[in-house]
Amino acid sequence: MKKIIVLFTVATFIVASVRLADAQQPKKVPRIGVLRLAPGAAPLYEAFRQGLRELGYVEGQNVVLELRDGEAKAERLPDLAAELVRLKVDVIVTSSTPAIQAAKKATETIPIVMGFSGDPVGTGLVASLAKPSGNITGLSDIGPEISGKQLELLKEAFPTISRVALFLNPSNQGNRLRFKAAEVTAGELKVQIQALEVRSANDFEKAISTIRKGQAQALMTLRDPAIYANQTRILEFAAENRLPTMHIDKEPVEAGGLMSYGPNIPDLFRRAAIYVDKILKGAKPADLLWSSQRSSSLSSI
After folding, report:
1. How far apart (Å, rounded) are the C-alpha atoms in residues 251 and 62?
2. Which of 34, 60, 61, 62 has a CA positioned 20 to 30 A from the CA of residue 127?
3. Which pTM was predicted?
4. Tens digit of pLDDT for each residue in 195-235?
């Protein structure tokens, strides 16, 4: 009987010790890698942080964010993406075609959540939105056809325009797709588009010279860091020459541009936190439905 009592006591002690050890084991704090193309996108990632806070995540306490910024130099993105992979982050959050492509090339296993992507299928990031596969999921702001709608609205506001200058970065695949969409609509509206290629700040003065020679009657800009870096000068030139402008984001309008037509990108980033939360709780990217924002808003001064 004494042996049974002793054995029972020892067994109870072992079980209690194991449970105590488990309770004392620190929980793993998830690490979220953030791959950003340029500092100008900081407000968008702040919206993502807001989304995390709404879900109960407190940075530095129950979640860690590893931020890597390309400083508007796309050639830096592959190395930065590889660095996040070496850190073994639990998920990578990113946006813009060059950054997403860099993340995709860096890993096939770490989940990638896109804050937004203009056309993930057209740019080859995913094969299908209906049946996602692989390690990429997230949100799409709207397809390339938005450029055609922007041109329609510009023509509706100024019926006499026949030449529109369009700033784009040909190195940005998303820009190329939207330019093609704008060309289709331009043909239907009998409007000529002047392509102003801006890969860096060095190309800006050449673009301005092209506008003057082509006698453009309005300006359009596509979303790209190289273009945003020259936003103030573009708006100054437009004001000096009394040229109406159309943008995809509302910020250029707040800075002096005429009109914008496009989705609420900060809201998309805030919602991206929901995807991250589900992945951290065990969901697979391929099991999460893609979300797109097809309803766009028109802003004007």
Report:
1. 33
2. 34
3. 0.72
4. 999 988 788 888 988 888 888 999 999 988 788 888 899 99
Domains of the chain: 31-142+265-300 (3.40.50.2300), 146-262 (3.40.50.2300)
Both tokens of 80, joined, read 């930065």
User: How many residues can be counted in the chain?
Assistant: 301
Q: What is the rounded distance in angstroms from the CA atom of residue 266 to the CA atom of residue 233?
A: 24
